[in-house]
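User: Show me a protein chain along with its predicted structure.
Assistant: Here is one chain, sequence first, then structure tokens.
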Amino acid sequence: MHGVSAAVWLVAAVLLCAGEVLSLDLVLLMLGAAAGVTAAAALVADDLLPQLVVFGATALLLLAVVRPVARRHLLPRTALPAGNERLVARAARVVQHVGADSGQVRLDGELWRARPYNAGLELPPGTTAVVASVEGATLLVYPEELPP
């Protein structure tokens, strides 16, 4: 009878691990691994209660300890800036005089409306500007070389 219960646990382990392919959350993988450990335990203990204890303890251990470590290693360590945040601190070339009311810069080949980050600053065409922040579709810029 040892072989039958071990085979059932082994089938459960394979099905749970196969289900992980669909979820990609590492929960089913941990449960599949626990079922695999229980299949080995079923070869030693034929009673269902010890097998359930082994499965429960192994599953809890894997979900509480191994899964968080595995997720930390699988997920990117730093999130990339999204949207307009990626433009901050980038250099742009002033195409049209940037003053209090208007201006235009070229960043990565695209034209953007621009205003000076600090009131009173003006940037002539040809100047290199740095993006301080983004308001809608307007870049707030300051000169690469700040005046003394």
